[in-house]
Design brief:
By secondary structure, the protein is mainly α. Helices cover 94% and strands 0% of the residues. It starts with a helix and ends with a helix. InterPro entries: Uncharacterised_SCO3924 (IPR020246). It holds the Pfam family DUF5326. Keywords: Membrane, Transmembrane, Transmembrane helix.
Amino acid sequence: MAELWKSLPSWVRNIVVPIVVLILAWNLIWFVIGAVTSLIAFLIKALVLVAVAAGVVILVKKAAKS
């Protein structure tokens, strides 16, 4: 691997490789942010669904008593 790195022209080592690494890091960061955001959104939707279902159960029980 060291021979391959040393065989690259200096402009590739100093310009192209850091740009490619930055692009890959940027995409990885946004992938993680997107995954976390979608997980949080799913959890919020699940909590809202549970809250609505609990409200419906409470209302049905109140209606059944009267």
